[in-house]
């Protein structure tokens, strides 16, 4: 008999792409679980009583290492959307109350006047549509070394949404042949356009020792100040040092920038024992990173690239267009990546079309594994975001990764057999993504908090930030 884990998705902090949250979460889980287990895993969206879950189906007879529920749990706990997990049992399940929608209660306001479904509805637990599964809460192991305040406290225009950042990091780690390092704490992670460190904070929470670089000294300073305050407030022993960036080869000419290093321990005993996390923060042009970091030293490269919403024409410094930046940074990024490493890049499809990105990466010895639009979601009027996953052409696990890419692209919902079920799917059960006249989501526009920080997409107002910079 197949066993099911049902993952209740965290309410999205960014209501703007709520409608895409389900497919994104399914694809992330297929990549992450499949990569760690070494074979595609059956993950899909499932709606039960009007609530959306991710369903992970495993076969207890499966002897693949790690495929049992117990080994899955630490991986599930790291998924960007995991909020609570249940074991589902369909046998002896509770019967839906009389008159209840067998496939799950219809969303409030949905039209329920149509004829009753005549065939089996695969969004429901039972072929006859008469029963709901029993859900038993199941605890997840604690996989985070630090609290969520590390990711959420710092707020600023241009911050990448934390949940999306976690997804990017998980995907890049999944591509690496050293992916187990994300659980052990020794996966080498680089964010080469780190801004004020959302990716680095996630990596620190996971127990990693990441490296970040950004050309904007103001961003680096702000993150440095935040981190030292946070470490003091949480009584975490730490040491810091800073200096000019040493060039690996004197041929580099002018200085490449500056560095700031932090060593962080859980307590004094750990500090004395050398059980520390290290963070390296570089203020420099990302195109020069190969001059200052060792070749083949990165397992997972995670970048939320500039969106280029305002400034396509400039070609110098950090005002390069996103495609120019990608083209100029790629030799360095490729040199830093281990043969078994992987990269996850978030890009604005309007300024960095998939085919052009694939060409650029291809010309630098990288194979793009994600398909066009696989992680596509709308951030705001100017940003139509997607994720590109790529690995070196000679990655030792290319066959496995190609199989995972194919499985990730399969439909994320069960095939729908009735018009009613299809209609329900087309209408998000909660937080509908209807848009107002200016293209922002109705939910965001009416959210009182949304107007106090960075409207319209309060967590990710990239556009205003870039405008400020380039005017
Ligand atoms: C979309 S933002 C990343 C935001 C970041 N994830 C965060 O949450 O703070 C893109 C970043 O790329 C940086 N950037 C642009 N051009 C760069 C370059 N040539 N070298 C290094 N960083 C660059 C910008 O300064 C900006 O911080």
Automatic annotation (TrEMBL):
Listed Low complexity bias regions: 92-116, 409-456
Transmembrane parts of this sequence: none
Segments of this protein annotated with the region Disordered: 91-138, 409-471
A Pfam family hit: UPF0020
Positions with biased composition (Basic and acidic residues): 457-471
Residue stretches making up the Ribosomal RNA large subunit methyltransferase K/L-like methyltransferase domain: 166-350
SUPFAM superfamilies: S-adenosyl-L-methionine-dependent methyltransferases (SSF53335)
Domain of life (superkingdom): Bacteria
InterPro entries membership: RlmKL-like_Mtase, SAM-dependent_MTases_sf
Protein name: Ribosomal RNA large subunit methyltransferase K/L-like methyltransferase domain-containing protein
